[in-house]
Amino acid sequence: MEKYIFQKLCSIIGFKDGDGVFGPGGSFCNMTAIHLARYNYNPDLRKTGMYGSQKLWSLFDP
């Protein structure tokens, strides 16, 4: 059922190969979004770890 709902939502929005996940609550979904954004910003995060990678706030330093 979950797969069908995501296929339907993606077709309405216009995504060809969309994907998604249902979360149990807002806090969990926000934490997942932050984790995915961080991984998208730095794909080597799994290799370098949090302390070996560039700090996220350094993006905003002038």
TrEMBL record:
<keyword id="KW-0210">Decarboxylase</keyword>
<protein>
    <recommendedName>
        <fullName>Glutamate decarboxylase</fullName>
    </recommendedName>
</protein>
<keyword id="KW-0456">Lyase</keyword>
<comment type="similarity">
    <text>Belongs to the group II decarboxylase family.</text>
</comment>
<dbReference type="InterPro" id="IPR015424">
    <property type="entry name" value="PyrdxlP-dep_Trfase"/>
</dbReference>
<dbReference type="InterPro" id="IPR015421">
    <property type="entry name" value="PyrdxlP-dep_Trfase_major"/>
</dbReference>
